[in-house]
Design brief:
Blueprint lengths: L2 H17 L24 E3 L14 H8 L3 E6 L4 E3 L3 H4 L14 E3 L2 H11 L3 H4 L2 E5 L9 H11 L6 E6 L19 H13 L2 E5 L16 H9 L6 E3 L24 H12 L6 E4 L3 H7 L3 H13 L4 E2 L10 H10 L1 H4 L4 H30 L10
Parallel strand pairs: 1-2, 2-5, 5-6, 6-7, 7-8, 8-9, 9-10
Antiparallel strand pairs: 3-4
Helix pairs in contact: 6-7
The structure holds zinc ion.
């Protein structure tokens, strides 16, 4: 990452933000142009954003740009690799759009990668500079998954910065996927992370640290496997989505009867153990998803302890919304705005790093490495400019 790259990206964003989103005119109701702002004025970069939902529908990238407006600098861009089957035998004429709305299986919908790449390519260079598209349409239990990722990069050179969000263990979801269940010990996953380490693709991985309804006081069931996995790929940049938590996969407690002020104690030790481990320095956490937010903001005490941990390790946490296919800005900004009690407890340095700085450091490095790797393969986007 050279200084020149960083400045050109900043300048592109500053110009873009100052110019107001041109796409807004198409479908947006009449509105005044947003005031010109400097790049430094935006609130955050979004490290975890789904443009489309479980049936591959969602927000157009131009509408998303309009929603981002002047409050968001940059964003990751991915869909959801899993498609919910509409099985007539299961739900009849009811068309499910979420995995909890049907008993029918989910399957990997690889076309999502082409869809995301084409959406990105439809934008102007200045607009593209605000996005980091991610490859998701692979089955992490398939030894051919890495071949798919290579094929996507070769077909769309100059586009992708990372892979993910893809899931290994995810409550309610993993068991619904057709075919072999994904596992942290599957060599297919090692070949995916090896490619990420070689090419520079930033990895955004969802892996519940524990099973739902785990016994209090027990070590999270997937913790050791996860640490072993990422230790085998220390040249990869890895973001562990949601700090390993889920809707019902809770922060582990010291005991079932622990008072509320101590209920997150063990989970903090788990996270701090990773942060303090020199062999895991390439692993960061995102604090995305309103379901994760509910743990952090559960009480003033949990918020303060979370802030203390982030303040101690400000380079290791990223904000992300994890919003799926937002209909409007109210839906999109809800997660960021609800985190206000946390933001106010962070040091100024930590607040800037978590909301923007860490994103720009990791994804700028990813862009530079992947572009160089693509060039080394002889895959160069036609008419590409160094972004
Ligand atoms: Zn997500």
């Amino acid at each position: 990452m050279t200084r020149r790259h960083r400045w050109s990206a900043r300048r592109a964003l500053a110009l873009l933000v100052a110019a107001a989103p041109p796409a807004a005119a198409q479908s947006a109701p009449q509105r005044a142009a947003p005031p010109a702002v400097r790049a430094a004025d935006y609130d955050f970069d979004d490290s975890h954003f789904h443009l489309t939902n479980y049936v591959q529908e969602g927000t157009s990238v131009r509408d998303y740009l309009r929603i981002m407006g002047t409050r968001v600098g940059r964003s990751t861009l991915f869909g959801i690799p899993l498609q919910q089957t509409w099985a007539y035998a299961n739900s009849g004429s009811y068309a499910p759009t979420y995995y909890l709305q049907s008993d029918a299986p989910l399957y990997y919908y690889s076309f999502t990668d082409a869809f995301i790449a084409m959406a990105y390519r439809s934008l102007s260079p200045e607009q593209r500079a605000r996005f980091d598209p991610m490859i998701t349409g692979f089955n992490p239990a398939d030894m051919y998954a890495a071949a798919h990722i290579r094929r996507v990069l070769r077909t769309f050179p100059g586009v992708f910065t990372g892979i993910g969000e893809f899931s290994i263990h995810k409550e309610f979801v993993s068991a619904k996927i057709a075919g072999e269940v994904a596992s942290l010990t599957n060599p297919a996953l090692d070949s995916i992370l090896a490619l990420a380490g070689e090419s520079g693709l930033v990895v955004l991985i969802h892996n519940d640290v524990d099973m739902p309804f785990a016994k209090a006081g027990a070590e999270p069931v997937y913790l050791t496997q996860m640490k072993d996995l990422v230790r085998r790929h220390r040249n990869a940049t890895i973001i562990w989505a949601h700090m390993g938590l889920g809707r019902i996969v809770q922060p582990v407690r010291s005991s079932a009867s622990a008072p509320a002020t101590e209920r997150n104690l063990n989970f903090e030790l788990v996270v701090q153990g990773i942060l303090a481990d020199p062999t895991l320095g390439h692993v960061s956490f995102d604090i995305s998803w309103d379901e994760v937010q509910k743990y952090i903001l559960a009480t003033p005490e949990t918020t303060r302890r979370s802030a203390d941990m982030i303040n101690r390790y400000p380079d290791r946490f990223l904000f992300g919304s994890d919003v799926v296919a937002p209909r409007d800005s109210a839906m999109y900004f809800a997660v960021y705005d609800a985190y206000r009690p946390l933001w106010t407890l962070l040091t100024p340095d930590a607040r800037v790093k978590v909301s923007r700085g860490n994103y720009e450091r990791l994804f700028d490095a990813g862009r530079t490495r992947v572009r160089a790797w693509e060039r080394a393969q002889g895959w160069v986007a036609q008419g590409s400019t160094d972004r």
